[in-house]
Amino acid sequence: MKFLENTKLKKTILKFVFKTSSQPIRFKDLLVANAYHNEGMHVDPEKLGFRMKIKNAYIVYAIVSTVVLLPLLAITHTLFEKLDLHASIIATIIITSAFFIGFQYFHACIKDKMAKQRIKDAWKIHFPYFSYEKYSKKVEDIFNEAMKKEIKKNDLQSFVMSRLSEG
């Protein structure tokens, strides 16, 4: 979903599809979410304080699908008009399957976009002097080290900050 990269449309869609909490994201939850996101795994939406409004997600997906499918259907209509009825039925089954499978892909992608947005927003609060793009991987490494050393939750923030300050 490259068309949703850093545009006003992306922000509008995310705001329409998701309900976000006004509660700040906890430091440890941010570190866990950052680690999962950097590893390409799905992040728990509850920890980042958002949930999907499924009806609105279907609306957005229907609009996007219509924009993609209508020109495709207009182009192939005359071809399927001349072909055998069985070919049209098979094509209909394939397109319908792709539509519903596509929603699962859309759901996963948009959820990942929202998770990244929430991580970046929380990053500005917890790490105001360290840019997300430059330091997210380094913070993940420090967090993994803290987990291996079994640093307590109360000492985690000071451990991460001191390690970031060192270098």
Write structural notes for this entry.
The chain is mainly alpha-helical and 167 residues long. It has one domain. The protein is 77% helix and 4% strand. The protein contains seven helices and two strands. It has helices at residues 8-17, 27-38, 45-48, 54-82, 85-126, 132-148, 153-166; strands at 18-20, 50-52. The protein has a two-stranded antiparallel ribbon. Helix 4 (54-82) packs antiparallel against helix 5 (85-126) and helix 6 (132-148) crosses helix 7 (153-166). It starts with 7 loop residues before the first helix and ends with a helix. The mean pLDDT is 90.
Alpha carbon gap, first and last residue: 35 Å
Summing up helix and strand content along with how strands pair, one would put the structural category as mainly alpha
Strand order of the largest sheet: 1-2
Number of strands: 2
How many structurally independent domains?
1
Summarize the structure.
This protein is mainly alpha-helical and 167 residues long. It contains 7 helices and 2 strands; from the N terminus they run H-E-H-H-E-H-H-H-H. Helix 4 (54-82) runs antiparallel to helix 5 and helix 6 packs across helix 7 (153-166).
